[in-house]
Amino acid sequence: xxxxxxxxxxxxxxxxxxxxxxxxxxxxxxxxxxxxxxxxxxxxxxxxxxxxxxxxxxxxxxxxxxxxxxxxxxxxxxxxxxxxxxxxxxxxxxxxxxxxxxxxxxxxxxxxxxxxxxxxxxxxxxxxxxxxxxxxxxxxxxxxxxxxxxxxxxxxxxxxxxxxxxxxxxxxxxxxxxxxxxxxxxxxxxxxxxxxxxxxxxxxxxxxxxxxxxxxxxxxxxxxxxxxxxxxxxxxxxxxxxxxxxxxxxxxxxxxxxxxxxxxxxxxxxxxxxxxxxxxxxxxxxxxxxxxxxxxxxxxx
Length: 301
Prior knowledge:
It contains 9 helices and 16 strands. It is an alpha+beta fold. It has 3 domains: about 1-95, Rossmann fold (3-Layer(aba) Sandwich); about 115-180, 2-Layer Sandwich (Dna Ligase, domain 1), CATH 3.30.1490.20; about 180-290, D-amino Acid Aminotransferase, Chain A, domain 1.
């Protein structure tokens, strides 16, 4: 097969790992900087170009779209879809997962366990938001934040009010969420491919840090997940319409709760923590999926 990996940097661990796995399986692989692409949006012969070279003959693409480039990146993915190229994650699913509020609403509608989450525009609702979350401490999140940036733990109601009012003063959209104290600054990343969790790791925040992101100094270790956690991760990815997803769970007193569903999960941490060839399993999934007429997002909100 001819596979395109939509990535800004071929030297990134995840991109390089996918390239090696695809080449080892005998496929022709091209890393495509999607921001350098331009499209001819035509009804008879839609096409896409990298510079003055037309990109043709691809059987599949693997989107690795940066969060800050979602709009243009998903347009490129959509153009490949229009051209009949299989995408490991569909453009609609990527857009859906990148909208934190929309994704939580979709998960809640389908009964997935979540931390108590509130959203408002009017700062006069701040006190009631805090109350709905069970009181302080609460977690305040910027909707546009990634990798733990724009996430604040407010220890007291007064601190929560100050943080929320400050963010709203900047016209930023924020969520307020229940703080899951019993998680102890750790979460579980489940890597879902198709309808299976192929690898999972526990990420523990450094001492004094409630965020477990590896980019923020956390560490990772292999973890055995429960059947309920496995089912929750698979269901969350399916609801988003994602074939490839990193589902972040917290272990709460009332069962697993989903924090986020990531459409471009990093592979370095989970491959090193588990020793599993995650990239190789992704390529095998694509091999088995190309040519099948199916959509995980058609008709879904």
